[in-house]
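During the second year of the project, the team shifted from modelling isolated chains to modelling whole assemblies. The rationale, set out in the original proposal, was that interfaces cannot be judged from single-chain predictions alone. As a representative example for this report, we include one of the complexes processed in the last quarter. Its constituent sequences, exactly as entered into the pipeline, are reproduced here:
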Amino acid sequence: MRGRPKFIFPEAKPVSSRFRYALNKYRVKIDNTCTNCGLCVEICPYRVYAKGSRRPRTPSEHLCVGPSCEKNAFFCVRKCPVNAITVQLNPSFEVLGDRRWTGDLLASTWYMAETGQVPYQNLNYKTGDSGGGFDKLRLLYRANGNGKKRKGSLKNVSLAISLNRSGDNRPKVTIPVPFYLGGMSFGSVSINAMLSRVRAATALGTFCSTGEGGYPDVLMPYDDHVITQVATGLFGVREDTIQRVRIVEFKYAQGAKPGLGGHLLGDKVTPAVAKMREAVTGSALFSPFPFHSVYSVEDHKKHVDWIKAVNPKALVSVKVSTPTDVDMVAVGSYFAGAHIIQLDGSYGGTGAAPDIAKKNIAMPVEYAVPKVHKFLEGEGIRDGITVIASGGVRNAYDAAKIIALGADGVCLGTTDLVALECIRCHHCESGRGCARGIATTDEELTNLMNLEWGTQRVINMYLAWSDQLRTILRRLGMKSITELTGRTDTLVHIDYMKKDEIQGELD
Amino acid sequence: MPPKYHTVTAPTPNRFQPVTRSGVIAWEEGCLKCARCVKKDCVYLVYQKRNLDPRQMLDSVDSACMDCFRCVQNCPARLIQKGVNPAYRSIGDSYWTPEILSSLWFQAETGKIPVSGAGYGGPFAGPGFDAMWTDMSEIVRPTRDGIHGREYISTSVDLGRKLMALEFGADGTLVSEAPPLVEIPTPFVFDLLPFSPPKEHILNGLLRAAAGLGTLTVVRESDWRPSYEEYLRSTMFLLDRGGAVAENYLDKLRMVEIPDGMDAMERQAALKRVRPELVIAIRMSLGPVSGSRVEELTEAGAEVVHLAANEFGMEEAKEPLFVKDRLKEIHLSLVDKGLRDQITIIAGGGIAMAEDMAKLIICGADAVSCDIPLLVAMECRVCRRCAQGISCPVELDQVDPVWARGRVTNLMSGWHNQLLEIMGAMGMREVRRLRGEMGRAMFFEDLEKEFSALGEGRRG
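Output from the structure prediction step:
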């Protein structure tokens, strides 16, 4: 970044839920013995309560820390002079989420999107409950000899990564955060959701991919932060969309359905979507698998050369999934001249996909990244390509772990949707589309979300992530995220670690 | 697509309301009577369509609700809540989980494969079949587009003994005698049910489904009813009455099973003398010695072996292995000895989902046998009360065989399509070639080595 002005991060601004009440882990109830003395409103530092006419209201239950507040002097349940308050687990909360995205992870992501802060309310925002991979890996902060905690300003910790390490004469694109946002096409998500993500990426100085659904004109002001995708259906791909951007992404496969093509249901092909994709309204659209012009690494090089010829300044990213020979695919991509290889693991993805594919086909990204990293190192070409991991990265801790396993950065999709209040009901396709106005083209549902709200929610969440990443790096004694790549010695797997040999703190 | 490659399915509704994961709890007390109630805004029109099933006292709200939580979040008086349904948690067991049962019910009802958005939500890995992933192809190998019918992927398998080479006489005539083969269009057969209420109608439904799908159902001679005679070509008798029933029909049968024992090869020979075209499978419980026994039988001229694990996929042993792990060992050992291609292996027990079928084939089975999912297709909740003689909560003893055929056909058609997905992603055009392709799969125990070494090495 030498010679250029230092990137200034945007500021977090509070943006509350679009719905009347945010979803909450704990329920606060005031029964009718309440005398409306107002003490709870006064003493709760989390602002759970608000004044009411007959008794206080609880508009912000999601800010409550729950029964463990007991240890605090201001514990409302104890302080209430007439014992009118109870705090307990919200039974609805149990229904939320799944093993990968637990209710805690959802609620903490919502909180980060609302405030830009790291959650405090007894939510596990670091791991889910999947019983393996990220959820069993822990960062290890080794004691540094004198036992003192590492200090230093977080501001001096750099999160920037380079997207062009090839040494060719194309632009040296650097992003100030170790992530960009993955492709979700216009048609699969609403225009508001798409624009919110692109605008957030712009504010954060990074990129957002268009997915395979064309390049709506409304994205033009953000061209410098858009990655346009060339996928197997070539929907909406034109010479001018490739010439507009700084990064072009080939999507060979996607983690949600490795080895399978895409399918946009006829109902979602509205006139606007059809026009963008140059297709017929109401007709289901299939993206074939694979590229029928690519049956070898040589064909793949021809593909990359084609893009490079159309846009002499663009970087080329190759998005692949994680087969047994993902290392060979990565090497092939490097020699074909790709700047970025994106490994999309099998547990991620946002679009509709057969359950059998999501669960069984291709390997989780936690396995693929170290395999590729080591192989590229062995070939002596690791420094010539940027490795981006995606597919199941849910939070800042996952990001740090996968970087330590060998990636340079990560690519996110689902987390953005969760920031936009996706509840992961998995019913993106049913009825009129997403009931929460994210993955829909229904006009009324699309209008559930406005652009400023969406943009700021995504920005807030990533600001909270950035803070967490800087804190992690400082605790590891690192000044730059680039130092973390491949440092598997900063990780342990709790199923295999020998407790007595571990000196340091697990996080 | 030629009809040969396509199974006709039709929605076949549930008789009982399925048990759903969560319920809606809506209180009336304290209602503010808003001008526009949040229930009216339901995107799925759940509250408009609500009705009560008088037989089960279940509210349709719970099966129609898609868990979007909008009413929960928007009701000003917070009168609407969601709750996990305790009945859902209690169905099935740790192997036949509520998630598996729900997925099977959906497939049996609709004939469609389960599709959902927002990524995978399940555990990272697990025991048994959940400890492996299948491969896919990109860039360096092409995939096959089987599901949309643009490329044909064959799922046919041949059951029977195979010759390693053909011999010709000096005059060019074929000298070798080719043993009979039974070709089934999908690599599964229907097996004995480990439990069920009185099964006259159930078996009738299974035989009809097997007939439509071109496959076979294992039927004990003691369970045979003359009314099944129409389906003899889909019947694979297990000779538990010494062949007394089957001998009446030998000329119409394609295959029979005989229990393994000292006299297995003699019984095979005896049956062959009566009807040389009959293919004979030798059935045995899977166990640590199955490998050496299969080897002996192969060398002695057996055509097909059927290895049956228990309903949780475990073999019979003190420290039992899971069916896929034992199969790997048996397959590789037969390959080593140059015997593998002579014999057909059907294996089963614990096959719960379409992926289990693909995975067991990868681990060395030519075809799988499927049991409990057939009952689940008929709405079985795997409560196993029938095993104790208690009446079936979904009245399986009284199913209409035509309805049962529809449900089982839907489910197995869904499995076929999912097998195409898996094979298409791998770039395979033949399920015969999927057998034993362990290099095209990834195993937990191998991949996990990456993690067991963590925390060592460079000190920070």
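The mean pLDDT of chain A is 92. The domain at 156-491 of chain A is CATH 3.20.20.70 (TIM Barrel).
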